[in-house]
Amino acid sequence: MTEPTGPRTFRLAYVPGVTPAKWVRIWGERVTDVRLELVPTAAPGSDAVLRAGDADAGLLRLPVDRTGLSVIPLYAETPVVVVPKDHVFAAVDEVGLDDLADELVLHPLDDLLEWNVLPGTPAKERPATTADAVELVAAGVGVVIVPQSLARLHHRRDLTYRPLRGAPESNIGLAWLEDATTDVVEEFIGIVRGRTVNSSRGRTTAPAEPARKPAKKPAPQRGGASGKSGKPAKRTAPPARGRRKRR
């Protein structure tokens, strides 16, 4: 069977709100023989794209089912509450969970925040997606709690958001199948972890150290060679001229 001769591809899945642009740029500069392909995927059940073989690694919103997966937590996102611009919360810098007691809080089906008890008054029906919930908030129906990156993703001029004190954070992690840790996966792990191009791990090897130039010999000092003591050598007097004999 003939193996494909085309360029290799590294497929990176990512969920809404995640911005992989920085890592994609570094990949393009460092790994020129493997093309990186971005694979958008929904947050709930995002590990399925890895298990189906549709992506080699993924920037996923945790938690996910870690069975058979390797997961590196990367960063945590601040939770915020999205409200209309004329809402009372728009006048403060931060909102607490107790402040939501009298608010209708929308809970979209794709929400992955780990709540023990959802604050406020829950809506009778759950919106299908975060985007749908934001549309309802814009229509004056309730408020919604999301990670800050999703509030930015679904930004509208008639809405704003404020940090929500006491709410669970949303964590982003890099995941891949344990039995599919290839060299290109290792390379991307190194990029995400900030490993430099000269690191001993990954596909890229450090450039050879340039050969050192031989040291230049010191130029001879003026006035003759020096002795061991460092003093300049004495000058030799010219021989004395003799007198002619009289005949």
Which characteristics define this entry?
247 residues, D-Maltodextrin-Binding Protein, domain 2, five-stranded mixed beta sheet, 16% helix, LysR_subst-bd
The helix content is 10-25%
The tally of strands reads 11
Shape: elongated
Share in β-strands: 25-35%
**For this structure, what is the CATH homologous superfamily of the largest domain?**
Periplasmic binding protein-like II
Spatial strand order of the main sheet: 6-10-5-9-7-8
| SS field, number of helical segments | 5
Just name the CATH architecture of the largest domain: 3-Layer(aba) Sandwich
How far the N terminus sits from the C terminus, by CA atoms, comes to 117 Å
Examine the coordinates and then state which fold CATH places here, giving the name of the CATH topology of the largest domain: D-Maltodextrin-Binding Protein, domain 2
Series of secondary-structure elements, N-terminal to C-terminal: EHEHEEEEEEHEHEEH
